[in-house]
Amino acid sequence: MRSKIPTIKNGIKNIKKWLGAKDKEQIYRSILGDKAPARTEIEVSFFQKCNLKCAFCWQDHGDDTGVEDIPGKADVVIEYIKSWKYIKDDIVVTMTGGELFQNNVDYYEQYYEFMSAVSNFKPSVKFTLISNLLFNEDTAQCVRKFFDRCQEDGLNVELGTSWDVVGRPVTHHYYKNLFAFKDILVGITFVLTKPAIKALLNGTYS
Fold first, then answer.
1. How far apart are CA 203 and CA 58, in angstroms?
2. Comparing C-alpha atoms, which of 52, 55, 53 is closest to residue 166?
3. Of the N and C termini of the chain, which has fewer Cβ atoms inside 10 Å?
């Protein structure tokens, strides 16, 4: 039998009190305790444009709004780092789309300018670029050159991806790129939709 979870007698009991609280971060930490993250994670979504149209995804895969101002989003990140009083020394900026690395689409210089601007302000920042890895050999070469350039210039960059056994076409390109970039791949997130969970439990996935 599970032990009873202790009641927080003096804690916030409703949404009105939560919205009116002066220090929400302190409340978070009083609840999470030592489980609170030891680093600050900032996620930046540049655009919705994507090479896929996954069943579970709410984004408009054909919308390229935001592409024109990728470097400009660095100002927002820098201002957040300046102003957030609970900012940690260990900061990770997660960069997402849409899909960052699409065939026949070149946003590499804009990504580089964004990271350079943030890194110039806070050199210790790490950048994790999220990709579905479903790009061809030509694009893979461009991605490799891009990461090599970033590392040579002192940017702390890494790659992240996800695995969806049902809602996304997992082609040979995915597995090929998975191994090709394993030296900079920081993690693989499982997409656990209801169909994906069933497939995993039943072993009906490739």
1. 27
2. 55
3. N
Per-residue pLDDT tens over the stretch 104-145:
989 999 999 999 999 999 999 999 999 999 999 999 999 999
What region, left, alpha or beta, does residue 203 occupy, with left being phi > 0 and alpha being psi -120 to 50 degrees?
Answer: left
CA-CA distances (angstroms) from residue 191 to 47, 57, 69, 110, 137?
Answer: 20, 11, 29, 28, 25
CA–chain centroid gap for 149, Å, is: 21
**To the nearest whole number, what is the mean pLDDT of the chain?**
86
Q: In what helix (H) or strand (E) does residue 138 lie, and over which residues does it extend?
A: helix 137-152
**What was the pLDDT predicted at 204?**
81
Closest CA to 69 of 102, 104, 107, 95: 107
The residues with which 190 forms a beta bridge, in sequence order, are 163
Residues 71-77 have a mean pLDDT of: 95
